[in-house]
Amino acid sequence: APLLQVKDLRAWYNESQALHGMNFDVRPGELVTLIGRNGAGKSTTLRSIMGIVRKRTGSICYEDEELIGKRTFQIARKGIAYCPEERAIFSLLNVGENLTLPPVLRQGGVPDSELLKQFPNLRERRKSRGTLLSGGEQQMLAIARILRTGSQFLLLDEPSEGLAPVVVKEIGQLILRLKAQGYTILLVEQNLQFARLVADRHIVIEHGAVVDTLSAEELVSDM
Ligand code: ADP
Ligand code: ADP
């Protein structure tokens, strides 16, 4: 059975409709990307799942429970974690302090010592303030912080954005490790090379609707 099932999802910003009937699902342990042009509705899809975009209709079922109508904190408590594109690091706090401020605390979260084993760079820079971190370190920190909640389903909005190729590779390796650990991941990605490298399946969005689903191999031959 799918972990997440989205049916006929429509979403609005005030009077402006951004999603026009999205249909897709994500199975447990899958790593799926949302790809498509700028403005297609990828970020809005993640924000709708999280309840950040509140004006939405249709159905978003997670573990057979309807999320539409629920508040963001209720959705987060179910074990869905969201890493927005803007990374949301507290620039005046250091790495360790940033880690203690997860969006929502759940029971059974990952302890810091355990968490930092996966992020040797961050462990070294534990006392560095957010502003002093590189873009890649900030992205790692943003991901580490959502892992701390103990959530098993991760929504990641363009983690590769604005990063040098060598750093993109590190982020890719991290995401593959998370997949190997059993996390289910829905990833917004503009960088198709990166998408190809990490994902099992790609959902192609145009004008607020799903127009195609591609396997890992199909994305290669299609581009
Ligand atoms: P993508 O992530 O695929 O680039 P978005 O989900 O950001 O696309 O945007 C989908 C549509 O919604 C676009 O037309 C965009 O201009 C609009 N949109 C996105 N965010 C907002 C917002 N905060 N207020 C109003 N319109 C928005
Ligand atoms: P993305 O496509 O990855 O969401 P954008 O560059 O479209 O990024 O959007 C950057 C920011 O501007 C987002 O916070 C988004 O919500 C906001 N935004 C995008 N389109 C609109 C719009 N038409 N009106 C108001 N805000 C918007």
Topology:
Blueprint: E1 4-13, E2 16-26, E3 31-35, H1 42-50, E4 56-62, E5 65-66, H2 72-77, E6 80-83, H3 95-99, H4 112-117, H5 120-124, H6 135-147, E7 153-157, H7 165-180, E8 184-188, H8 192-198, E9 201-206, E10 209-215, H9 216-222
Parallel strand pairs: 3-8, 3-9, 6-7, 7-8
Antiparallel strand pairs: 1-2, 1-4, 4-5, 9-10
The protein binds adenosine-5'-diphosphate (2 copies).
Structure description:
With 223 residues, the protein is α/β, with parallel strands linked by helices. It is built from nine helices and ten strands. It has helices spanning 42-50, 72-77, 95-99, 112-117, 120-124, 135-147, 165-180, 192-198, 216-222, and strands spanning 4-13, 16-26, 31-35, 56-62, 65-66, 80-83, 153-157, 184-188, 201-206, 209-215. A six-stranded mixed β-sheet has the order 6-7-8-3-9-10, sandwiched between helices. Strands 2-1-4-5 form a four-stranded antiparallel β-sheet, with helices on one face. The chain is globular, with a radius of gyration of 17 Å. The mean pLDDT is 91. Bound molecules: adenosine-5'-diphosphate (ADP) (2 copies). One adenosine-5'-diphosphate is lined by residues 38-39, 43, 85. It holds the Pfam family ABC_tran. One of its GO terms (biological process) is L-amino acid transport. It comes from Flavimaribacter sediminis.
